[in-house]
Amino acid sequence: MQMSIFDAAADFLPDVCFERPPDIGILFGSGWGSAIKCDEVLSRLQYSDIPGLGASTVKGHSGEFILYRRAGKLIAAWCGRRHFYEGSGWESVVMPVEILRRMGCKTLLLTNASGGINPALRPGDFVIIRDHINLVGANPLIGAHCSEWGERFPDMSEVYNRHLSELLHASSNRLELRVMDGIYAYTSGPCYETPAEIQAYKAQGADVVGMSTVPEAVFAKACGFDIAGISLVSNLAAGISRRKLNHEEVIAASEEAKPKMCALIEDFLARL
User: Which is catalytic among the residues 8, 34, 55, 85?
Assistant: First the structure.
């Protein structure tokens, strides 16, 4: 990855973004961006204006960076993400994490929408990510080593922080949400998986499948972040669902779950 791309993006952000490290950074996936409630907005930027990031090309990702205060906490939120399948390279995918690192942030919440593999799951459930499987065979850390991003061979024994996951569980339980721990399988997309692929992922231990999150988690873990991940099950995966899969179903499920997502984020932030 080219450091100059990140330098240009960081130089574009206003000074207020670097005055104090955010208490937490949040990367909102499909439909999750509407879960934001702000007391005071300090900065609001469109992805399309940030050099090297670019507008999100996926419906359900508003493509907006917001630095705001809520309940006494400073939060840096990325509403929408760039995906590997969009073809813009790893820089745009991990840029939100790199900018957070430069802001001094140490805690990251990753959210997404996924397809349910575990038979106990149904659309509208939440899965707190316990671990992941990278099925893509690609990694944003490939290339020249940058010491600012940690060790050359970072340990991935515990990507997702146990304490933060416990806080998500506590919030989910208080709100009486259907939630379970699970393993997230990462595929490149943009096509959905075949039924045979889903059965293979199931045999490997995957509970949900999606096209995001893992690159950001790997990069953030290498950089020393404490990470939590939560997924909304927006549909059942291929071969489990009797219907053909489409992105409109993902958006519809996210819209229906919006009140739950908002309440979950609010309760989680209050527990930090």
Answer: 85
Annotated catalytic residue within 118, 235, 249, 261? 235
Respond yes or no: is residue 61 known to be catalytic: yes
- Is there a contact between 39 and 68 (Cβ–Cβ < 8 Å)? yes
pTM of the prediction?
Answer: 0.94
Record the tokens describing residue 76, joined without a space. Answer: 């840096």
Is 247 in the active site? yes
CA-nearest of 174, 164, 206, 231 to 27 is 231
* Main-chain dihedrals φ then ψ at residue 74, nearest 5 degrees: -100, 125
Count Cβ atoms below 10 Å from residue 182 Cβ, excluding itself.
27
Q: Is 113 a catalytic residue?
A: yes
Give catalytic status of residue 156 as yes or no. Answer: no
Please check whether residue 193 is in contact with residue 209, taking contact to mean a CB–CB distance below 8 angstroms. yes
Instruction: Give me the tens of pLDDT residue by residue for the chain, a chain 272 residues long.
Output: 889 999 999 999 999 999 999 999 999 987 787 778 888 999 999 999 999 998 776 665 578 999 999 989 999 999 999 999 988 899 999 999 999 999 999 999 999 999 999 999 999 999 999 999 999 989 999 999 999 999 999 999 999 999 999 999 999 999 999 999 999 999 998 999 999 999 999 999 999 999 999 999 999 999 999 999 999 999 888 877 666 766 777 777 778 888 899 999 999 999 99
Q: Is 163 a catalytic residue?
A: no
Q: Does 184 participate in catalysis according to the annotation?
A: no
Q: How far is CA 235 from CA 72, 133, 240, 252, in A?
A: 36, 19, 10, 10
The Cα 134–Cα 204 span in angstroms is: 11
User: Which one, of 266, 192, 270, lies nearest residue 234 by Cα?
Assistant: 192
Indicate if 160 belongs to the active site: no
Contacts of 8 (CB under 8 A, 6+ apart): 51, 52
